[in-house]
Every structure is written in C-alpha cells, then in structure tokens.
Design goal:
The structure is a single chain. With about 425 residues, the protein is of the alpha/beta class. The chain is about 35% helix and about 25% strand. It contains 13 helices and 21 strands. The strands form five sheets. It has a nine-stranded mixed sheet with strand order 4-3-5-6-7-8-9-14-13, sandwiched between helices. Strands 10-11-12-15 form a four-stranded antiparallel sheet. It has a four-stranded mixed sheet with strand order 20-19-18-21. Helix 2 packs across helix 3, helix 5 crosses helix 6 and helix 8 runs parallel beside helix 10. The longest helix has 22 residues. About 45% of the residues are buried. The structure holds adenosine-5'-diphosphate (ADP) and zinc ion. Adenosine-5'-diphosphate binds next to strand 7 and strand 12.
C-alpha cells in the first residue's frame, strides 16, 4: 500500500532530475532571501548558478545548530514573518538552548504528507486508531504526526504523554491500534501494564507502535515487540527538518526510508566533512528540497547513521538509513575509550532478567557506574542468582566497551522515568 505510489517508487533518473531542480530552486531562494546564506555564498565566491549538478552540493556551505542559535529567532526565515509563516515549533532542547523553527502553510501540509506516506507504508488503514502519546506543544513530535494521521483519515487520540493509567484506559475504551511514543516511555508503559496484569494481546487492540525522538537499539525493539505483542517501527525526525516523517521504517523493518524527494542525504565524516565510503557510518547531513519557511542547506544533524545498501523489497526506491547509531553530543569518553549510551543499552536489553530502565553515571576520569533495573523475581529469590546476573552484566558490558564498569542492580521503577526524552548519562565529572 502506498500513499503516493508514483513518487515513492520513482526511478533514480527521475529522482535525480527532481532533486536537482528543487536544489537549484532552494539555493536561489536562500541566496535571495536569507542574508546569512548570502554572506556564506559571498565568502565562498559562490553564485546560485554554480550549482549545475547534484554533485555540486559539496560546494554549498554547511548549516549548524550554532547558526540557528545565532540567528534566533527570525534570522533564517526565507519568507516574511507576517503572512509567510503560520506555525512555530522549537526543538526539545535536549542539547543546549532551543532552536526556533517556522512552518509556512505549505510546510505544514508537506510535513503531514510525509507522515501520511510513513503511516500507510506500515500498513495503516482507515480502521486504525492512533493514540498519540508524544508531547503536544512546541515540540514537533506530536503535532506533525497528528496532522499526518488526520490526512490519512484515521481517528487520532491526542493523548499526550504521561498519566499511564489513563493511557491504558484510553486504549481500552477506544480500541487504539497504533501508538506514537518515545522508546523510554514505551518501556515504562510495558512495565506498568505488566504490573497491572494487563496482557496487551488479550486485553487491547494494539497492532503497532511508532517509536522515535531518541535513540534505541534493536534489542529494545525486540524486547518491546515481545512484551506488547505488536510491531514496532522506527521513526526518525528532527525539528529542523519538520519533525517526524523524515525517515521511517516500512514493514520490512530493515532501515528507514528517507524521503529523497524532500531531502538530499549525505553521510559525512564528522571530523573532515568529506563523504564516507558508501555503507560506512558518519554524520547525517540533510538539505531540504521542499521547505518554504526555513530551507536549510547541508544541515549537520550530529546524528550518526549509515546508508543501507540495496533495494528494499517493499518497492520504495528512496534510500534507507540505519538506526541512529548515536548522537555526536551523546558520546562520552572513559579512560580514553569513546562510548555511546546505545552500546550500553544494546548489551543490557539483550540480557534476560534486565528490566526496563538504566542510567550511566560518570564519576571520575576512570569511574563508570551502570545502574540497571532488573526483574522483581531476582530480588524475591536466591541471592546467588542476583550475583550471577550482576557478573554476567559486568562481563558483557566489558566485552562491548572494553572497560569494566561498576554495576548496581535495582528493583523495577527505582530510576526516574521521563515522559519525553530520558537522560541516560549523568556526568558528574564536569560539575
Ligand atoms: P533536540 O533533541 O535536539 O532538542 P528534537 O526534539 O528536534 O531536538 O529531536 C531531534 C533529535 O532526536 C534528532 O536529531 C535525533 O538525535 C533524535 N531522534 C529523533 N528520532 C530518533 C530515532 N528514531 N532514533 C534515534 N534518535 C532519534
Ligand atoms: Zn521498504
């Protein structure tokens, strides 16, 4: 099932032609309307007419988060602020001050179109009901998904996050079939369901959930799919690119299709800014092709991913990117070793007995403590089992990250749980 079959299955020749036309238009637009870009072009002695092929994208300047902050709030608008834009979003501010993002009427519509493609790609039909458990408000996550689902024509329950008992009641009363939420909240939700004796397969009508807004591993997906008895699809987006709907998994769950008629994707070496060899991981850099209010050239997302080679069985021709393997800002160093929180998560979630939540504490240059919740049974049973589990966790972590962390086992629901993005790493070394 397709939402816009022709564009979703476009062949490479036509896609490249369309991308080039849209790139040239975007370049002309920012050159004429955004002084920030005009200055950058001048610095490089570059004119819009110099962009003659798609490869010429490499001549274009990068845009960074700092550029957004320095030009806050209106500096990067390509249309008049009065009459040209109809909606403001800000990024959730996980890292530093928020960034202001404006949508024109067409941007609102286009972001909804992309979500509609994504939902239909996972099999959504008119009898589906989406319970949207992302935060409504300045964050793009909920509203953009909401508009997209309405475009498909399905019922949306604007639940927002939190109040987990009410969420479950909504699922029961209105037979929600799809959920949209963060992975950390999904883990919490499954824990609450378990503690209340709710068996999703028996008691609810859920079919699938869309998880995004923060990184999670394949192990977490599998764990949640098993606990909730549903299909879980990865959803990637960022406010700077209209929010969710940038890249999304199809039913094959083998990488996320990134909508190349809307974005040009580059994977670059984060240090040198040069392209990595195809299939290698690097920083995802995106250029918008359809944005009106705030077009961006070569935006450095700071998200690490790689391109998945080959064609997808679903028939869509748009490239697939891997799961986000990390965020440049999330990486921390212990005893000279570079570590991403997801490496820890992947190990923990693959171990039987580990429950839903964990935290990483960095206490000194060489001291790392992993606090991890484990299933209640282990506390109620034999202490030896607890010790065996602890050394298993320590060993497995050591073989992944090459240093031996201290491990502390906790009962379920001990660590704080966030409804939005969860803080996994607590770095006291800089305090
Ligand atoms: P921020 O968190 O920077 O304040 P946003 O709320 O716009 O801004 O969040 C976008 C960021 O969330 C992305 O750049 C990425 O790091 C992360 N993110 C979004 N979706 C996913 C996903 N499916 N997997 C991993 N990370 C994701
Ligand atoms: Zn596919």
């Amino acid at each position: 099932m397709f939402w816009q079959e022709e564009i979703e299955t476009i062949d490479s020749k036509n896609l490249e032609k369309l991308q080039l036309e849209r790139l040239q238009k975007t370049v002309r637009c920012v050159y004429e309307n955004v002084p920030f870009y005009r200055d950058k072009f001048k610095d490089k002695s570059l004119k819009p007419d110099d962009i003659k092929t798609l490869q010429d994208i490499r001549k274009l300047p990068f845009t960074t988060r700092d550029d957004l902050r320095l030009n806050y709030p209106y500096g990067l608008l390509a249309v008049p602020k009065n009459g040209g834009v109809v909606r403001l979003h800000t990024s959730s501010g996980t890292t530093g001050k928020p960034k202001a993002i404006f949508f024109s009427k067409n941007d609102v519509n286009q972001s909804a179109e992309l979500i509609a493609r994504c939902l239909v790609m996972t099999g959504v039909k008119s009898d589906d009901i989406l319970q949207n458990m992302m935060t409504y408000g300045l964050f793009t996550g909920a509203l953009v998904m909401h508009y997209g689902a309405e475009k498909v024509g399905i019922l949306v329950i604007p639940a927002g996050p939190g109040n987990t008992e009410r969420q479950i009641a909504l699922m029961q009363d209105f037979s929600s079939t799809c959920l949209h939420l963060t992975p950390s909240y999904a883990l919490y939700l499954s824990e609450v369901m378990e503690s209340k004796g709710i068996m999703p397969k028996r008691d609810l009508s859920l079919r699938r959930a869309y998880l995004g807004a923060e990184p999670y591993s394949e192990e977490t997906r599998k764990k949640l799919e098993q606990m909730l008895g549903i299909d879980i699809y990865n959803s990637y987006g960022l406010s700077e690119m209209n929010g969710p709907g940038v890249a999304f998994e199809c039913i094959n769950k083998d990488g996320m299709h990134i909508w190349e008629d809307n974005f040009i994707v580059e994977i670059l070496d984060q240090e040198t800014g040069e392209p990595v060899t195809e299939g290698q991981q690097g920083e995802l850099v995106l250029t918008t092709l359809c944005r009106e209010g705030m077009p961006f050239l070569r935006y450095r997302t700071k998200d690490i991913a790689k391109i998945i080679p080959g064609k997808c069985r679903c028939g869509r021709t748009h490239k697939r990117i891997s799961r986000i393997l990390g965020r440049v800002d999330d990486m921390f160093i212990v005893r000279g070793v570079n570590i991403f929180p997801q490496q820890i998560e992947r190990v923990l979630m693959s171990i039987k007995g580990v429950a839903q939540n964990y935290q990483i504490h960095l206490e000194a240059y060489d001291k790392m403590l992993v606090k991890v919740e484990i299933e209640q049974d282990f506390f109620d049973g034999n202490i030896e089992h607890l010790l065996i589990l602890k050394s298993k966790i320590t060993e497995k972590l050591k073989s992944e990250i090459l240093i031996t962390p201290k491990v502390e086992l906790l009962e379920p629901s001990t660590l704080p749980m966030s409804e939005g993005k969860t803080q996994r790493v607590i770095d006291r070394r800089t305090l």
